[in-house]
């Protein structure tokens, strides 16, 4: 597994290992979904999301330091990221996905949302397989850094998401409608992320031990529970 700051050198340019994990996730998603026509259409949408994400993260530092274009242009190939690169990447990709959902026919929107959540899970699996994530200090087994052992929280995420996918495979006949699947994914994702965050030191406390991401996942969990309690069939499509 790789450190979060590592990258792959391709000629004189560097590709962050996080971007590599997203490309692998995209390839896996393409293989899984390309067997159906609407699956191929979804993969085409994800191509644009992947390109927006890669280009935004790779060249965001130019937005923060535009003078580099004139003073050290070759460094454009060597560096990527920046102080707010991930935030900008998530914002732009999220905005593009929201637009894709908005322009879909109402009867297809739930299917698209369901597949976006499935794509998120594949991305998390790929990321957790490749990149170490350091949790709280541990006296036992874990990742070593500066003579200290830390809980391997990426492995916790990996196990959690693999169990979620296995559970979906077992229950797939009962989750016949897209809204049922959306509820299942939202609840599963929220529980996994909240549990694993409990093994990590929180740096963004808003109240007691609750941080910004905790609030996001709690809201996501409540939305999933709402869909579960007030479940309705899809307008047209079954999956």
From TrEMBL:
Residue stretches spanning the membrane: 12-34, 46-63, 83-100, 112-130, 150-170, 182-200, 206-229
Top-level taxon in the UniProt lineage: Bacteria
Sorted UniProt keywords: Membrane, Transmembrane, Transmembrane helix
The keyword Membrane belongs to this UniProt entry's keyword annotation: yes
Protein's recorded name: Prolipoprotein diacylglyceryl transferase
Organism: Hazenella coriacea
């Amino acid at each position: 597994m790789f450190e979060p700051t590592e990258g792959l050198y391709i000629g004189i340019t560097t590709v962050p290992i996080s971007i590599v994990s997203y490309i692998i996730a995209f390839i896996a998603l393409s293989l899984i979904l390309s067997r159906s026509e609407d699956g191929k259409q979804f993969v085409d949408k994800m191509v644009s999301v992947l390109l927006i994400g890669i280009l935004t993260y790779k060249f965001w530092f130019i937005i923060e330091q535009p003078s580099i274009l004139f003073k050290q242009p070759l460094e454009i190939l060597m560096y990527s990221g920046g102080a707010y690169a991930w935030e900008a990447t998530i914002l732009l990709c999220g905005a593009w996905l929201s637009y894709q959902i908005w322009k879909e026919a109402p009867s297809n929107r739930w299917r698209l949302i369901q597949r976006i959540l499935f794509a998120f899970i594949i991305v998390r699996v790929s990321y957790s397989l490749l990149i170490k994530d350091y949790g709280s200090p541990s006296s036992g087994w874990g990742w070593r850094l500066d003579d200290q052992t830390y809980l391997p929280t990426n492995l916790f995420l990996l196990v959690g998401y693999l169990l979620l996918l296995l559970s979906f495979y077992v229950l797939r006949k009962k989750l016949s409608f897209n809204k049922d699947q959306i509820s299942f994914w939202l609840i599963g994702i929220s529980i996994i992320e909240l549990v694993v965050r409990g093994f990590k030191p929180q740096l963004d406390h808003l109240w007691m031990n609750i941080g910004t991401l905790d609030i996001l996942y709690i809201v996501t969990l409540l939305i999933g529970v709402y869909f579960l309690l007030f479940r309705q069939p899809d307008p047209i499509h079954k999956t």
